[in-house]
Amino acid sequence: MSIQIFGTKKCFDTKKTERWFKERGIKYQFIDMKEKGMSRGEFNSVVQAVSGADKLISDKSKDKELLTLIKYLTDEDKAEKLFENQQIIKTPVVRSGKKAVIGFFPEVWKEWE
Length: 113
Fold this sequence. Notes:
four-stranded mixed beta sheet
């Protein structure tokens, strides 16, 4: 099982997620969204796994103007704008192959093993 955790170092749920995997001895790769972000393939895989770009959007983002704009875009344009502005993606995004979940959901991760 290959786990990727996309998040930020200051995000409480990201820290909790990392701790959950560490405590179980499950290896994972942490990708800091502020430094690197998702590749196009990773992003598309996550969007497909969570059934749409809407689920990735964090309404807690500080960029209120961008959040307002995204609400009025078509699904395709919304995904493109979100890929270009990954700072408004909810964290953590935990990915394993074609499966992905947004947030702290150990009950889902247990099923991946």
